[in-house]
Amino acid sequence: MNPAPSWMPPQAADIAKSVDWSFEVTLFIALFLAVTVVGLLALFVSTSRPQDKQSAGRDGAGWVVQAFWVLAPLLICGYLFTLGLPGYVSNTRQRSESYTVVAAVQPWTADESKERSEGELPIADWSFTYPNGFVARDLRLPAHKKIHLVVQGSQGAQTLYAPALRIEGKAAFGEKEDFWFETSDPGSYPLFNTVYSGGEFLGMGAELMISDAAEFDTWLQEVSNDLSGLPPAEAGQVVFQRNGCVACHSINGTPLVGPSFQGLWGRSETLADGSSVVVDADYVAESIFNPTAKVVKGFQPVMPPFAGRISDEHVGFLIEYMKSLNGEGAK
Amino acid sequence: MSATHAAAAPSGTQGSWLFSLDHRRIGVLYLWVSCFAILVAAFLGWLTAVETAYPGQTFVGEQDLHLLGAGRGLFLVFFFLLPAIPAGLGNFILPLQVGAENVFHPSMNRLALHTFLLGLLAAVVAALLGGADAWWAPLTPYDLGPGAVVTWSMAAAALVVFSMMMTSLNFIGTVHLRRAPGMSLSRLPVSVWAIYIYSWVHIVAAPAATLAYGAMLMSRGKEMPFTNPETGFAFSQIEMLFWFFAAPVLLATILPVIGVVTEVLSAQTRRRPAAPGLLVYAMAAIGVMSFMVWGRELFSIGAHERLAIVGSVASFLVYALVLTIIFAWIGTLSQRGSGFQVDAALLYAVFAIAFLAIGALAGCFTASMALGPYLGPSLFASGRFELLVVSPVVMGLLAGLHYWWPKLRGCSCRGTAASLGAWAVFLGLLLSGLGKLALGIMGVPARAYSAGGPHLAAYLAELGATLVLCGLFVVVTVLARAEKGSDEGIEGAGLEWQAGSFNDAENFSTVPDGHIDPYDFR
């Protein structure tokens, strides 16, 4: 199929090509009808046709004409509907052996490398989680590969709008939407959030970068390896910041939206329903993957589930980090 | 003749306006508010177009533009689109068209007006308190949070919805119970049918909005059982409830336009509508289908695929019916008849038809299941809404005002200045709408602070918004300065032309004979 015309966004995936085909046909029919209707209006209004004595009194249209007025638009609209049906169905159909990336919204500190200073607000922005647990602020994808993009509802109801993919990923809190597509040639395309929900979401925006498969593998290897060389507790600290945990959980004992991590490990907590639980590896993992299952008394069930967005290995790092915070607290 | 009516509205101008039971005065008050609202919306629309066309800050910052945009939506939807033609023009003209002395329940009509003005007050308070900090439609869970300033704007919208419900009940009652003797349902003009069908759509849809607003207002900043996903509504369900109201009602605002355009087109060209029955059935079908269009909103929030298909089919059916109505109008125009002059009223009617056609065709893009996710979140959707709903309502209202101005003010409005204003508003709305369609196709998201580079389409949209603003000022000035006793204008054949003037205490000096043909121009 043809590439997109220069006034449309470039096609970053195969689904964009089928969408553009529907677009071109619809545009052709719509332009034809618009010109016809406006032309006829202009013609009949500018040239009024004075009364013909013979035909005077013959008011109204016959049933054949009326049937045409009803059926012609119905047929045109029916055709346009069938034209759009396969395009929608194809990008929501599961494709095998796809590379899964999970998109969500999370708080980011202004500068990831340093710890958040007192009072500095986290910035909400997109996060893209790769199968190996690495989290990035931009969406990098290998070229000519089958991709499974999951848009996960987290804070608010942000909508991931990707004009180059011709898709809109919208998910309410706790829900998700799946897309399957095959990427095209390398290139760089903008991603938007189209839902306004307060000032902290205004600066949201990310880049979709498609690069050669080999280049992509090298990049992911490089950025992911920074954890493997670190001691587990320090790796946990990086995971803690990168996944946005830092926005709601302090490390100095002050409860924020969620409990502080300091002194949390091994403590016995009272849950909302009155029962109690010891903070061990199982409870921490459950609270990350399914946060609303056991909520500690005094806190709201507002944490988004991280299932699919964080690997077991990284949960292990986080636990080591929590343990290390106990040691500091004892000092 | 109704005694209460005569007592509450003495002749002349001494009578009270705010507490009058006279349907004509109540209609005029609605028209003033609508006029104010469209000027506010046109100004804020111009501001948005300028900010989008140029990078960086031109007048206001990004967050402020969102607040102003929310205010624009509030005024445009709840104080212009909903009330302008039914409550404003309809209150004045509909009872005259059916040969009634007043609406079915005058004091409920007055209560509706007061509720509406209370809503306006709440909207102004919202503006003074820093704007409606959300879109005009709910954005749960954000607008339930402590940071959002939405209580007043939600209250404003809820009051207007409630007020329009009383007005709608009144119209239905008037059509059924207050027709002049001899006026059977088959003798009703198309515009009466249009407002009647619109009223039913509003009455069926409004409880959903009341429920959504009630739930949101009660749970602002607190935990309530119906906003807890485990025991009651999920957040998205409140949005769904709202759209169950807003999608049909906003679409149905084109029905009164269709009615007014049919009247004006026929009377001005002295041609009987080619298929009045087809028009009424098509409008009724649009009213019914409009309730299924909201499935379109479910396209992308993980709803079942079949629901999305229903929404797409319903949208396409609505657009097909709009095209059917346009074909019937062209059929009306193509008939032979006496020659006619092109006045401002006729220009507005023809412009409304052009907008309905272009808007319905633009709708065929967003209704398509393949194109919906691509164009739906972009400026294309805003352009479609402006072309299909906002522009026809503006044009339909102005067509009706120019056509019935002799009834409203005892003077007519037909000069060059009136036609010039009509062309300015038309070209402005067209450029603005088409510019947004083009920007949307380029992938510029809706509510974008900047179009992301110099785009001809963004400059055209800005030029259009400027033209609309200037044109509206010309139109309002021309209407306000039309001189009494200037030439009579073109009259229709309906009962409203037999009624007395605005200042008469009674609509009809004698009981009118309902055995008329509203389209007999011979």
Helix-strand layout with pairing:
The complex is a heterodimer of chains A (331) and B (522).
Chain A: H1 14-46, H2 63-91, E1 99-108, E2 123-129, E3 135-136, E4 139-142, E5 146-152, E6 159-162, E7 167-170, E8 176-182, E9 187-193, E10 206-211, H3 213-224, H4 232-242, E11 268-270, E12 276-278, H5 281-289, H6 312-330
Parallel strand pairs in A: 1-5, 4-10
Antiparallel strand pairs in A: 1-2, 2-3, 5-8, 6-7, 6-9, 9-10, 11-12
Helix pairs in contact in A: 1-2, 4-6, 5-6
Chain B: H1 3-8, H2 23-53, H3 62-81, H4 84-97, H5 106-128, H6 151-177, H7 190-218, H8 235-252, H9 254-269, H10 276-289, H11 305-334, H12 344-367, H13 372-375, H14 379-409, H15 416-441, H16 456-481
Helix pairs in contact in B: 2-3, 2-4, 2-5, 2-16, 3-6, 4-6, 4-7, 4-14, 5-6, 6-7, 7-8, 7-9, 7-10, 9-11, 9-12, 9-14, 10-11, 11-12, 12-14, 12-15, 14-15, 15-16
Structure report:
- The complex is a heterodimer of chains A (331) and B (522).
- In chain A, 34% of the residues lie in helices and 19% in strands.
- Chain A is an alpha+beta fold and 331 residues long.
- Among the domains of chain A are: 99-224, Immunoglobulin-like, CATH 2.60.40.420; 232-330, Cytochrome c-like domain (Cytochrome Bc1 Complex, Chain D, domain 2, Orthogonal Bundle), CATH 1.10.760.
- In chain A, a hairpin with a 5-residue loop joins β2 and β3.
- In chain A, α4 (232-242) packs across α6 (312-330) and α5 packs across α6 (312-330).
- Chain A is elongated and about 100 Å long.
- The model of chain A is unreliable at 112-120 (pLDDT under 50).
- With 522 residues, chain B is an all-alpha fold.
- Helices cover 65% and strands 0% of the residues of chain B.
- Chain B has a domain at 21-200.
- Chain B has helices at residues 3-8, 23-53, 62-81, 84-97, 106-128, 151-177, 190-218, 235-252, 254-269, 276-289, 305-334, 344-367, 372-375, 379-409, 416-441, 456-481.
- In chain B, α7 (190-218) runs antiparallel to α8 (235-252).
- Chains A and B meet through α1, α2 and β7 of A and α3, α8, α11, α12 and α13 of B.
